[in-house]
Amino acid sequence: MRASDFSDEIRPHLFPQPSGDLIYRCLQCEEVFSIESLLYTCLKCKSVLLIEDRERERLKQYSGSFWRRLFDHRRMLNHPALKGIFLFHELIAPVIPLEDIIYLGEGHTPVVQANDVLQEWVGLDFYFKNDGQNPSASFKDRGMACALSYLNYLVRSQGLTEVLSICASTGDTSAAAALYSAYMSKTVKSAVLLPHKKVTPQQMSQPLGSGARVFEIPGVFDDCMKVVEHLAENYNVALLNSKNAWRIQGQESYSFEVAQSFDYELEKKVVVVPIGNAGNITAIMGGFLKLLDLGVIETLPKIVGVQSEHADPVYRYYRESAPSKRVFRPVTVRPSVAQAAMIGNPVSMPRVVRLVEAYEQAASSPGVFVVQVSEQEIMDCQLIANRNGHIACTQGGECLAGLLRAREEGVVSAEEVAVLNATAHALKFAGFQESYFADDLDAAYEIVPKPELRNFPALVEAPGVTRLPAPGKPLPPDEFNTFVEETAREIARELGLKEKAAQI
Question: Using only C-alpha atoms, what is the Rg of the chain?
Fold first, then answer.
């Protein structure tokens, strides 16, 4: 839709100009730093940072109703910079000019309602938001679109010529970082660190295909992260893990899209999200708090974070009901099919603590819960979801398992509506499905395949057919007709089909 077709009230605001006064604020000592350079931790106390707009009150000159109309009208535009997460430009990174925004097709992923079978099984209405339909096939593209757009802005405004982006990853972060860096290949090169043999072949292929330098490190993600942190502290690199506060800004778009998908009516809504490095749950809470502050929404949805019992430091922290007695302790992770969540020492934990506190204060009732699930439940739930028309990854299975657990514990009621975060595409984790079907998963996963969930291809060899078609070797017509008829008859027998009655 052309801008000229919009009303006089909306038209002047469709294409936002750079605005705001953004700074980094330390979550520990409250120190403030300029955003003119890339900064990942506080220069004084080394704690993590959040980005704050010190001119945020300027947005309140417009009503919540106005912002809803503006965001809804922008969805009808065909301007590349506003087609993705930056449709919510004023809430994400208002200092970035539209010409510096990188858009690769991220954001506005579908919200797909569960079918009747799944709804009856769980006992409530729920949806999957399929973030695996982002360009690199995971939710990480939301944060990368923001982080790389800001890097693009710095490159242009400061005349930078050679930048090396770097990240540690369990797979999805590396794919997104390499993809978005490749789009800026004139000025940005990419390097990623992966835990050796802890990433699926599909995920490994992505940064390699984008031309990144890929380094495998012994250990797990937490070990890779320590190496990357050392590099960021001692060398000139652009860190693209969720320690990068711009990543968190971009991932807030998930909340904005969920709100928009339900016409900003979030009463009795529940958002279920897996907790890995804790950046995503932080961003989701932060995004909903922004919408509430501006009056775009009137009610905060309930947040349910999910962790596998193989990697559950956040669950253990909140298992203590008394805030004064809570002590965060990293855990040694065990193998998990939800690989993106296999993190024992999430770097965003300080953000989680701060945002949960703010969320609980703003919510009219307890608003944030953390549940624990087994590896068996994760894998079974992924398969069950996908047998009912979804494309959930193992983290999506983790969310479904978490919703079931939340129902059991009385955290979620039958009157509520849930949105489950399927963080990546199912094809990224096809190897786990294959191993489940073949019953050759390593014992460390503690998963026993259920016969009713296993599936195999069947080679059809029709009895009585001696010659078979082959590439470049077609059968004579009469033999081919026999092959077709006998093969079809054998498949019909396997499927229990009945022949049609003869037509007169």
Answer: 25
pTM: 0.94
Largest CA distance in the chain: 89
Number of residues assigned to the chain: 504
Query: What ranges in 262-371 are assigned the alpha helix state H?
Result: 279-294, 313-319, 349-362
What's the CATH number for 139-251?
A: 3.40.50.1100
> How far is Cα 251 from Cα 93, in angstroms, rounded to an integer?
11
Q: Extract the tokens encoding 153.
A: 């802005």
pLDDT of residue 339: 83
Return the bridge partners of 419, or none. Answer: 127, 271
30: left (phi over 0), alpha (psi -120 to 50) or beta: left
Pairing of strands 49-53, 22-26: antiparallel
The Cα–Cα gap between 196 and 206 comes to 16
Tell me the helix, strand and coil percentages in the chain, rounded to 5: 45, 15, 40
Q: Are 256 and 95 in contact (CB under 8 A)?
A: no
- Read off φ and ψ for residue 112, nearest 5 degrees: -110, 120
Q: How far apart are CA 70 and CA 418, in angstroms?
A: 26
CB neighbour class for 274 (10 Å; exposed up to 12, middle 13-18, buried from 19): buried
Partners of 238 in the β-ladder: 165
Mean pLDDT of 129-150: 97
Report residue 280 CA to chain centroid gap: 7
Question: Residue 219 — left, alpha, or beta (φ > 0 → left; ψ -120 to 50 → alpha)?
Answer: left
Residues 176 and 180: their CA atoms lie apart, in Å, by 6
Contact (CB, 8 A) for 218 and 196:
yes
The CATH class of the 111-136+256-453 domain is alpha beta
CA-nearest of 417, 136, 394 to 262 is 417
465 phi and psi, to 5 degrees?
-95, 115
- pLDDT averaged over the chain? 94
pLDDT per residue as tens digits for the range 17-58: 999 999 999 999 999 999 998 899 999 999 999 999 999 999
Q: Where in the chain is the domain with CATH 3.40.50.1100?
A: 111-136+256-453, 139-251
Among candidates 64, 65, 83, which has minimal Cα distance to 74? 83
